[in-house]
Amino acid sequence: MEPPHREQELGGAQFQTVVKFGEIKTLRYPNLVKGYLDQGFQVVMVMEFLDDEVETNLDLIAQGYYDDYIYQFIDEMIADGNRLVTIRPLHEMNGDWYAWGTQAGGNNDIPTFIAAWQHIHRVFASKRANVQFQLAYNCKNGQNDDTPFTAWWPGAQYVDMVVCSGYNRAGSPGYEAVEWQSFEEMFAPAYAQMAALNPTVPLGIGETSTVELAGYDKAQWIRDAFASMATAFPRLRQATWFLQNKNDGKWDLNSAEQIAAFSEGLLAYTPQNLPQELYNYLPLTDANGDGILNGDDAPPPPLPIDLNDNGVIDPAEVLPDSAAPTAAPTAQPTAAPTAAAAAALLP
């Protein structure tokens, strides 16, 4: 769901940061980042080194195989004024589900991850790109491995924030025997590991949400999560919520109570009254007739097709005439659905 629709759903409560996912070979700044910066959001760009030609690729990344794609992104960013962007490469590297995961086999291992991370950082630094780097763990290692988070630490000079992703998956496919967990129960062990990496680096939540399970109150889980973020974990500075229903769980806000709980959390614990200039999308309507305006009612994201080959995705290329912004922006956010809304927590 795009930001104007999400904030409409939340009754005007603002979030501060948009998280976008982009595959390395189609990683274009005008399509994925510019439009959100123009609207007044911070952007976390998740760089996904997905490649159909290889199963594992940490060694290729470290050797510079994908550098041309990164340089193209940087050049487009600098041409637009070199505004601050947070870069999150090689996320959830402590698992086996991505080609860059250190448990994925092949030539992937922890030393090669560190080499790949440091190489990506050097590429951005070489062009003096205005970026910050988020080191993003999964809150639990894959394969029930007990290797400490310190093993993946690439060095303080290469990291601006550390985050991890964790969900309450109780009862979801493959997790039928897992018991319901509060956010605090789920996150606390990983928080302790992240805090031990460096005494001053800011910490955050890369992705989080909860499923819906009979007998449990999702709205209360959301309220408790916001309160825990603000009180139990003093070094937290950012929390990204994954709000999209998928086959493995109903992660979005799916009732008036859940929407109210999330809105209340944003209003109570995060900066508001921000100078945002949202694109003038057509308002959401209850497309599926369930009585709730949420992500299930959102139109699909515009397609990233530069029809006139001018280097940006213009409103006329992605929106019907009736939905075109009244003040046309120079670039329209495109590509993967915007399922992640990040809240910058008040210190």
What would you note in describing this structure?
- Belongs to the glycosyl hydrolase 26 family.
- Residues 322-347 are annotated as: Disordered.
- This is Glycoside hydrolase superfamily.
- The protein is an alpha/beta fold.
- The protein has a single domain, classed as Glycosidases (TIM Barrel, Alpha-Beta Barrel), CATH 3.20.20.80.
- The protein is built from nine helices and ten strands.
- It has an eight-stranded mixed β-barrel.
- It is globular, with a radius of gyration of 20 Å.
- Mean pLDDT is 87; it is low at 316-339.
Summarize the entry for a quick read:
It comes from Tribonema minus. It contains nine helices and ten strands.
What would the keywords be for this entry?
347 residues; alpha/beta; 8-stranded mixed barrel; two-stranded antiparallel sheet; 10 strands; 16% strand; globular; TIM Barrel
